[in-house]
Amino acid sequence: MNEMTPPKxxxxxxxxGLGSARKRVEDARFTQGKGNYVDDIKLPxxxxxxxxxxPYAHARIKSIDAEKAKALPGVIxxxxxxxxxxxxxHWMPTxxxxxxxxxxxxxxLFQGQEVAFVVAxxxxxxxxxxxxxxxxxxxxxxxxxxxxxxxxxxxxLREDLAGKSEGxxxxxxxxxxxxxxxxxxxxxxxxxxxxADVVAEEMVYYHRTHPCPLETCGCVASMDxxxxxxxxxxxxxxxxxxxxxxxxxxxxxxxxxxxxxxxxGGGFGNKVGVYPGYICSIVASIVTGVPxxxxxxxxxxxxxxxxxxxxxxxxxxxxxxDGRITxxxxxxxADHGAFDACxxxxxxxxxxxxxxxxxxxIPVAYLAVDGVYTNKAPGGVAYRCSFRVTEAAYFIExxxxxxxxxxxxxxxxxxxxxxxxxxQFPYHSALGWEYDSGDYHTAWDxxxxxxxxxxxxxxxxxxxxxFKAGKTRKLIGIGLTHFTEIVGAGPVKxxxxxxxxxFDSCEIRIHPTGSAIxxxxxxxxxxxxxxxxxxxLASEIGIPADDITVEEGDTDxxxxxxxxxxxxxxxxxGAATAMAGRKIRxxxxxxAAYLLEVHDDDVEWDIDRFAVKGAPERFKTMKEIAxxxxxxxxxxIEPGLEAVSYYDPPNMTYPFGAYICVMExxxxxxxxxxxxxxxxxxxxxxxNPMIIEGQVHGGATExxxxxxxxxxxxxxxxxxxTATLMDFFLPTAWETPHYTTDFTVTPSPHHPIGAKxxxxxxxxxxxxxxxxxxxxxxxxxxxxxTHMPHDHWRIWRTAHELGLHG
Amino acid sequence: xxxxxxxxxxxxxxxAAVKLMADLGDSARVIAGxxxxxxxxxxxxxxxxxxxxxxxxxxxxxxxIDGDTVTxxxxxxxxxLIGNAALAGAAPIIREAxxxxxxxxxxxxxxxxxxxxxxxxGNDMPGLMQCLDATYHLQGPDGARExxxxxxxxxxxxxxxxxxxxxxxxxxxxxxGGQAYVKQKRKTGDYATAAASVIIAKSDGNxxxxxxAMTNLSDTPVWCEAAGQALAGSPLGEADVENAVRAMxxxxxxxxxxxxPAEFKRHTAAVILRRAIERAASRA
Lengths: 806, 284
Description:
heterodimer, A: alpha+beta, Aldehyde Oxidoreductase, domain 3, Aldehyde Oxidoreductase, domain 4, 3 domains, six-stranded mixed β-sheet, 19 helices, 35 strands, 28% helix, B: alpha+beta, Uridine Diphospho-n-acetylenolpyruvylglucosamine Reductase, domain 2, Uridine Diphospho-n-acetylenolpyruvylglucosamine Reductase, domain 3, Enolase-like, domain 1, 35% helix, globular
C-alpha cells in the first residue's frame, strides 16, 4: 500500500524546480570565504611564475639579459621566446584564426606584453627577479588610432604577416588590416538610402573597456613525470576547449591532459581565451617537473588580458516621413589591438554583430566590418554579452534616437512603430538571423506604463522650462532601450570555435537511494549553475533539487562541452540537461511499468512519480524506481539509471527586454544621478526568479559603469592610462543605482523548456539606456550624438559646447 | 604588486621612532595608515629599505580639546575623526571632509597625520588644515618644532618636514562661523576633481572673516588668501562671491589628467567654491 499522496502543489513545491526562487547552494561557501579559487591551490614544491612586461607599446627587442635574475637565490629559470622556440611554443594560435606571441619574439606590440617568464621558489623572489631582467628596447613608431592604422605609410605592426594578403577571414588590403566581413545587401540598401524621405547618419563609438573580473586570470600547471599526465587548474570559462587546444599545440595526448576550473571569481568573457601565462606555466612545469603557479595582478589584468568593445560604428538609417524605417547601413572600424584574439565562433569574425537591426522590422540592411591592428592589447571578448551583441544593441538604439531627432518624433513611438510584430515570428532579419520568438509590443507597453512615461515627459518639459528660466541647473534625461539579444551559440552547422562544434552536454547518474549527480560541459563563474541546473532536472525527473549535485569544470569527469560565455549555458547546456533528464524518465517509465505490472504506455508521469493511468493510487515514485534500477533484475532493461545528452541547438535564442533610465544631470559639474532604472526582461521560461534578478542587477551595474565612466584609455604613445581601479571605474554600492525589475514570458519555441538565457541581457540593454538618458537630457539643446563614457568632464564638455555655461 | 624587500620597525615611543629615523638615514620612511605608501611600494615606484611603523605609539593617537584649542594626534584615524562628537562640535568641517575620504574600510586605517604629511596634492586634509590655519607639530633629532600648514607644502610630495622628522600632532583654534567642505569626485575612493574648504564668520549680516582653501587643483593645496579677503566685510552678494571665485582662479593651477582637462577643472573649481561659500554662509 502506498502512503497517502500529498497534493500536487505540495509535491511540486518540494522539488524546488522550475520557477522556484531557490537560494543559491553556492553561497554557503562563497559568503563564508570558503570558495576554492585557483590562487587557493597549493601543491608541494610549487614554484611561481611572473612576467617581465614591455613598458613600450611598440619596440624592437635588441637583447634580453637574464643573468642577474638567474643569479638571484631562489630563481629557477627565466624563459624567453628563444627558449620556447625549439618547442614551437613561442607563438600560439588565437581563437580568431590569428597567431599571438607567447613571449615577445623580436619585438613588442603593446604595453604590458609578456617578454620573459621568471620562475622562482616563491612569488616574492619571482617579483624581485623580474626587476633584474635587463631588456634593451629600440622604440618604434606607435599606432593607437585605428583610422590611421591603414594609412599607406603606417608602421608595420605584424612583421610575421609580411606578404600575407589572405587572412583567416579573407583578403587583407593593408599590412595592418585583418579582415573585412560583409553581411546583407549593399546595392539594395544604398538604393533605398538614396531615395529615402529621411536619412539619419552618425558615428557611434563604443569605447574600449575591460571585463575586469574580481578574480584575475591565473593557473597552476602540474606535470607528473611518472605517469606523464599534465593537470592544469585555471580560470577557464571553457575547460574542454582548453584541453583540446593544449593537446594540439603541445603535442601531449589529450587523455594525458586534465583541465580543472575550480571556483571562478567572475569571467565576463575575460577568461575565455588562452593567455601566455598558461602556456609558460605549463612549459615551466614540464621543464622543472614540479607544479608552477601563475596569477596575474590587477594591473596586468587590465593591461594585458582581453579587453572588450572598441568599435567605431558609422551608421545610416532611412525612414519614411511618418517614421517607418526603410533601411540600415553600417560600417564598423574594429580596433583589435596587436593580435586578433577575439573570442568569436570561427565563421563570425565580428561575432553576431549582424543582430544590429535590433528589435525592428527593417526590410533591407548592409553591414561591413573592417578589423585593424593597433599597438594595444589583444582581446575583443564578449564582456557579459553574446559575441559583439552589446555593440550592435548600442548602435541600433543610438541610431533609433538619432532618427527620432531627425524626424522630430518621440523615440518611444518610433520604436513601437517599427517593432517586429508578434505574428511575424519566426522572423528572418535582413542580415541573416531567424528570430525564434518575441512579443515586443507587449513588453514595451508594459514598460512605458510602469514608469508613467507620459508623466516623465511632462516633468522633463517642466524642468526644461525651469532651466531656461534660470530656476535650476539640472536637466532630466529619459533613456529608452528595447534590445534583442542573440545567445546560446550555437548550432554546430554554423558555430564552432577552432573547429569544435558549439554543442553542450549533461551526464546524469541517479543513485540507488534516489539522489543524483549531474555533470555538465559548462562552468559557472558565479551564475549559480549548481542551483539552476538542479532545478531544471528536478522538474524533469521528479527528484528534489536539494538531492541533486551539479558538478562542472573537471575534464576528466565532465562530458565534453564548449563552456560558459555568450549566455549559452542555459540555452545549450540547460537544454542538454533537460534532454538527459528525459532519457532518465523514459527508462524510469519502463521500470515503473514493470514494477506496477502494466504496459509501458499504461503509466503516466505525475510530478515525482509514474502512476497507472486511471488509477493514480497505484504509482512508483522516482525514489522507488531508482532503487529498483539497482536491485531488480528487470527483463530487457539494463541495471542502473544514467543518461548523457549532447545537445546541438537548432537555433539561437533571442531574449529581449525594455529598459528605461531616468537621470538627473548637473550641467555645471557634469555629475549625474540615476533617479530610476526600470528593467523588463523576457528570457522565456524563468528557471529561478531570484537568480534572474541578481543577474539583472549585476549586469546593469556593469552597464552603468561602462556607460558612465569605465574605459581602457591609451595616450598617443600607447601607454595605458587606466590600469588601476583608481581610474578604471568599478561602481561600489554607493554609486550603484537602484533597479526595478520586471518581466514578460515568451518561451523559446525550440528550447526543451523554453528558456532563453538572461545573464547578459542587462549589460546589453542597460548601456544604451544609460547613454540614451544622457543624450536625451541635451536633446532640446541640439545634441544628436556624443561618445561614452559619460564621465563628469565629458558631460560637462557637452554642456559647454552647447553653450549652457553662459 | 609585490614590493621590494624591506625591513620593518615598530617602535613604541616617539623618541624611539625619531632615533630610528636618525640611525637609518635616507633609506627609512615612517608609515602611518599606509594607503599612499604601500601602493607605491607594491608598484615599485619607490625604494624604501626600512619602514618605521607608528601604529604602536599611543602618544600619537587621540583628540584633545582644551578651550578653543583642538589638538589631534597624527595617528588618529579618519574614522576616529568622524566618530568624535566633541570634534564635530568644535570643527564640524573635519567630519564633513573625512566622510568624503575614500571608503569606510580605508578610513578605519588611514590617519590624519599620513594624510597631511605625505604631501599628495590629492589628499583632502592639507587644504582643510590651511583653511583652519592649523599648526603641525614635528619632532626630530634636534627636538620639537611647529610649522603652519600654510607654510608646509612646497610641491607634490615635497614638504617642509625634514626626512628625519616625524609629524606628531596637528592643532588649531576652533573656528568661528559656518564651515563647508564640498568635493567633486568621480566615485567612492577617488581623489577630488575639485574640492573647497570654506569658513565664513558673519557679524551683523555681513561676512566678517573668511578663509578658503582648494584641493587637488595645483601641485600643493592652495590657500586662497585674496579670495577670503574678497568676502571679508562684504554682504556676500553675487558680485562678492564672484570676486572670491576670480581670486581663487588666479592662484590655482590644475593639470590635465584622467579626471579631465584643466579647463574643466577650473570651471568645476568655481562651481564647487560657489557652493561651498553658499553652504558655509548658510551655516554661519
